[in-house]
UniProtKB/TrEMBL annotation:
This is Dehydrogenase. The lineage of its organism: Bacteria, Pseudomonadati, Pseudomonadota, Gammaproteobacteria, Alteromonadales. It comes from the Bacteria. Keywords: Oxidoreductase, Signal. Residues 131-246 form the GFO/IDH/MocA-like oxidoreductase domain. Belongs to the Gfo/Idh/MocA family. One of its GO terms (molecular function) is nucleotide binding. It holds the Pfam family GFO_IDH_MocA_C3. Residues 4-121 form the Gfo/Idh/MocA-like oxidoreductase N-terminal domain.
Length: 318
């Protein structure tokens, strides 16, 4: 099997985890790395076995041997980085949130179609086996009709006015950084937009939020979502039906899920993986590219647009 060559844009924590997980795929390798600092790119490339290191991103985009680009820069740079890669004819997997506005998301989707390249938001959660198993249980009617979806994601992030998380110019705030996960979970299992949004937010600094509580409905389904920079939340998800419910601990990186009928555990699933979990989305991107696909059915352009729309609507209610 010919392995695809990944170009890694950015050398932060997420990029490192992604590169570590590429070793758990059978269809991709870290081929090149780019950073604003040439020294950073060289050190990162050496650590993860990439053949090439570039100072500046355009040089990587222009490398004819790079098949697909993984973008792991701060949120507000995603649109430009992805646009430049697409214009250079590269396929793109871009970290979430793929952009910071509905308009940018629309433009990026149109640009990818114009240049006939693959584009996907890196919602790795959707590709985890435990999330896929939970979805199958729902589709099989194991919990009956869904009545409630509850999900949260939060970790304490110490306040630093110079840090990315609290900087309004760098798309700071817990909603885009962490809140996208509970929203994505709700969208994955309901496949419909949220209605009647009610939002409570704590604004910490220059309009940047550090705690958000969201309640809504999706038809007859009640939805409760929470995200926070103030504290560690439960970080799980519950998909609750009229016949049973599914419990997913640490849903954003789910290793397992459990199926219950009332108080009785009916079935339990663990994926037993060796990777952190990014390998599943990387493997899927490789598969889609081998089939000459330009979009994922699991994490489609329309799904990314829905998330962007929801986050804009939520922020408008702060």
């Amino acid at each position: 099997m010919k392995k695809i060559n990944w170009g890694i844009v950015g050398c932060g924590r997420i990029a490192a985890q992604f590169c570590e997980d590429l070793a758990h795929t059978n269809n991709g390798v870290a081929y090149a790395v780019a950073a604003r600092s040439g020294d950073d790119a060289t050190a990162f490339a050496s650590k993860y076995g990439a053949a090439n290191a570039y100072e500046g991103y355009q040089a990587l985009f222009d490398d004819k041997n790079v098949d697909v680009v993984y973008i792991a820069t701060p949120h507000n740079f995603h649109f430009k980085n992805a646009s430049d890669a697409i214009k250079a004819g590269k396929h793109v997997l871009c970290e979430k949130p793929i952009t910071v506005s509905v308009d940018e998301c629309k433009q990026l989707s149109l640009l990818a179609k114009k240049h006939d390249v693959f584009l996907m938001e890196a919602m790795w959660t959707y590709f985890l086996p435990a999330i896929q198993k939970a979805k199958k249980w729902v589709e099989q009617g194991r919990i009956g009709t869904i009545k409630h979806v509850k999900a949260d994601f939060g970790y304490p992030v110490p306040f630093n006015p110079d840090g990315r998380e609290y900087n309004p110019d760098l798309a700071g705030g817990c909603l885009l950084d962490m809140g996208i996960y509970p929203l994505a979970i709700a969208n994955f299992f309901l496949n419909k937009d949220l209605e009647n949004l009610h939002v409570r937010a704590n604004i910490r600094y220059k309009g940047v939020e550090d705690d958000v509580l969201i309640s809504a409905n999706c038809g007859d389904v009640m939805v409760s979502l929470t995200t926070s920079f103030q504290c560690r939340l439960g970080n799980g998800a519950y998909i609750i039906g009229d016949k049973g419910y599914i419990k997913i601990p640490d849903a954003f990186r789910a290793y397992e899920c459990s199926l219950y009928e009332l108080d009785d555990l009916i079935e339990h699933f663990e994926d037993g993986r060796q990777s952190q979990g990014y390998s599943f989305e990387a493997q899927e991107v490789g598969r889609l590219l081998s089939e000459n696909k330009r979009e994922s059915d699991i994490m489609s352009h329309s799904q990314s647009l829905l998330l962007q729309s929801q986050m804009e609507r939520i922020k408008a209610l702060f």
